[in-house]
Design a protein that fits this description.
The structure holds two protein chains of two kinds. Helices cover 76% and strands 0% of the residues of chain A. Chain A is globular, with a radius of gyration of 25 Å. Chain A is mainly α. By secondary structure, chain B is mainly α. Chain B has one domain: MetI-like (MetI-like fold, Orthogonal Bundle). Chain B is built from 13 helices and two strands; from the N terminus they run H-E-E-H-H-H-H-H-H-H-H-H-H-H-H. In chain B, a hairpin with a 7-residue loop joins strand 1 and strand 2. In chain B, helix 3 crosses helix 12, helix 5 packs across helix 7 and helix 8 runs antiparallel to helix 9. Chain B starts with 11 loop residues before the first helix and ends in a 5-residue tail after the last helix. Classes of the chains: A mainly alpha, B mainly alpha. Chains A and B meet through helix 1, helix 2, helix 5, helix 6 and helix 7 of A and helix 1, helix 4, helix 5, helix 6 and helix 7 of B.
Chain lengths: 283, 301
């Protein structure tokens, strides 16, 4: 019996040949996945004439496209807009999702289940269903072309609420009861006990809102009406749609706009991956 | 705002505070949610029964927008494109990410964590940026694929200019971007499958494939449901890639439903008509989600 178990266990590990074949396959797939970036990076160092030629590597590595990007286009401004909007959305979002998540996790109140499901159901609504009336309203209120319309919608994130509720409901009830018996007010309870304990989830929610806001295309496309107010995706799409598109310049823009996200990703890999999978496996 | 210490619970004001607390806590979230999501969703439904051209106030016209949609050939082209591109994407993305997850789940694979992270990377950049990059992959003469094919002496098609290949090119780009993300979700699901159960099946003489087929995959159903629903919703709402790569062309080969809504609403300023189209799409999405839940969901309950 034991011998049989051992044999099975060894059978689980395929021969070294198969192992290397799998590793090789994964490496090939990885090369395929990374190739578009490598190509964009190479192209960003090429002048126009070289992009048209048949070679793969730039003959002379030149940074002209990057210089041009920051001097002749509004790229710096778009970068700043994107940063302002995404960071604000993440901050506001952490506060409102944290508060609401606490209420849904630890309080009983009339309408709780209905409200929660309304929020979750809103995820399946296609874009533009909300944007169409909002466009009219914001035009009337004179809020087109302001940061506000790009910050507030992303802050009330259904995913953020869901995640905060999941996390806070795992905190022990006794802790909250004990604080209340000690005379701790509701606001102080939230600020000094709940939110500090929920820091990991808050971090995840902040990052996810940051990413979705940073990458959003439809909202700024519709609500931002002048070049100076564009965010990166709209600005880059604009460069791209010009007659005689300057591919080298566009690739420089694409590469530069990836860098902040890659930095965020490598710094906070754990939270991001945990956050993205938590909802899926528990739901 | 520190409250004075109050050791005696049960006072009237105290009880009131306790009852009001949850509503105060959810108030900021729901103010924003109401203003930017729930309110507009309801308003959009009402506007779909009006003629609204942006500048003038909306005028009620009953069901005429929906009647017009039924007769609008382009809307059905857009809906058809959306459905088959979404179908192709959902199948490819889920098969690819599930296979990848099964490989990465095997304990003997070296560098699994490096691979897991690396495959996720495309997801961190925006659709717009990936579309812009892929333009220079697909382009007819200066694209990477064309250049690689030229090395071996083949003249490939202009991928984005041919109605037969353009939708596939867009689907392939989307699979590239999201495969690693869904692989991570599947991987999390695989790691939750009981190791004892698999070991027991192996001791009973099941082959490795049989273990996957009869133990692992059934246990993975809830995660698969989540991924299938999520990939479907996101693909049925496809907009950024065709907008950047093809502007819906060539002909209307990559015109998606959301692009149709955008064109009607923000290029032709037919906001009422666009709202009607977006509601038909909503209905399609909800029905597909329900169908998937019935197909993959738990039979019990």
């Amino acid at each position: 019996m034991i011998a049989r178990g051992l044999r099975r266990r060894r059978a689980l590990e395929p021969s070294p040949l198969v192992q290397y074949a799998v590793l090789l396959g994964l490496c090939a797939l990885l090369a395929l996945v990374l190739m578009p970036w490598v190509w964009a990076l190479l192209s960003s160092f090429k002048p126009r004439s070289e992009i048209m030629s048949t070679g793969f590597l730039p003959e002379v590595w030149q940074i002209g496209n990057y210089v041009e990007l920051f001097t002749t286009t509004l790229y710096g401004r778009w970068l700043m807009n994107s940063a302002i909007v995404s960071v604000s959305a993440a901050c506001v979002g952490m506060v409102v999702c944290g508060m609401a998540g606490y209420a849904f996790a630890k309080f009983r109140f009339a309408g709780k289940t209905a409200l929660f499901w309304i929020v979750i159901a809103s995820v399946s609504i296609p874009p533009f269903t909300t944007v169409i009336p909002l466009f009219g309203w914001m035009a009337k209120l004179g809020l087109l072309n302001t940061y506000l319309v790009l910050v507030l919608p992303f802050a009330s994130s259904a995913f953020g609420l869901f995640m905060m509720r999941q996390y806070i409901s795992t905190l022990p009830d006794e802790l909250i009861e004990a604080a209340r018996i000690d005379g701790c007010g509701e606001l102080r309870l939230l600020l000094t006990i709940i939110l500090p304990l929920a820091r990991p989830a808050l971090g995840t929610v902040g990052i996810l809102i940051f990413i979705s806001s940073w990458n959003s295309f439809i909202w700024p496309l519709v609500f931002m009406r002048s070049d100076e107010m564009f965010t990166l995706p709209v600005g880059i799409a604009g460069l791209n749609s010009e007659q005689m598109a300057e591919y080298g310049l566009i690739m420089a823009a694409a590469i530069t706009s990836c860098i902040p996200m890659l930095v965020v990703f490598f710094l906070m890999q754990k939270q991001i991956i945990a956050g993205l999978t938590r909802g899926a496996v528990k739901a | 705002m520190a409250e004075p210490r109050r050791r005696r619970a049960g006072g009237l004001s105290h009880r009131f505070r306790r009852a009001a607390a949850p509503y105060l806590l959810i108030a900021p979230f729901f103010l924003l949610f109401g203003a930017f999501w729930a309110g507009p969703i309801v308003a959009s439904f009402l506007y779909s029964f009006t003629e609204w051209r942006g500048i003038t106030p909306p005028e009620p016209i009953g069901l005429r927008n929906y009647e017009r949609l039924i007769g609008d050939e382009r809307f059905f082209i857009a809906l058809g494109n959306t459905l088959w591109m979404a179908g192709a994407y959902v199948a490819c993305a889920n098969l690819a990410s599930l296979s990848l997850a099964l490989v990465l789940d095997a304990g003997w694979v070296r560098l699994r964590h490096v691979f897991r992270t690396a495959f996720f990377l495309p997801m961190t950049i925006s659709m717009v940026v990936s579309a812009v990059i892929f333009q220079l992959i697909y382009a007819g003469d200066i694209g990477l694929i064309a250049k690689l094919l030229a090395v071996v002496g083949i003249e490939g098609p202009a991928w984005l200019r041919d109605p037969a290949t353009a939708p596939l090119a867009i689907v392939a780009m989307r699979v590239w971007r999201t495969m690693g993300y869904y692989a991570i979700i599947y991987l999390a699901g695989l790691q939750a499958v009981s190791a004892d159960l698999k070991e027991a099946a192996r001791l009973d003489g099941a082959s490795e494939w049989q273990v996957i087929r009869h133990v692992t995959l059934p246990a993975l159903k809830p995660v698969a449901l989540f991924c299938v629903v999520l990939t479907s919703i996101s693909a049925l709402e496809m907009f950024d890639e065709p907008m950047i790569l093809t502007q819906g062309g060539p002909g209307d080969a990559t015109l998606t439903a959301v692009m149709f809504v955008y064109q009607q609403g923000f290029q032709f300023l037919e906001l009422g008509y666009a709202a009607a189209a977006s509601y038909v799409l909503t209905l399609v999405i909800v029905m597909i989600s329900i169908a998937q839940k019935l197909w993959l969901g738990e039979k019990e309950r």
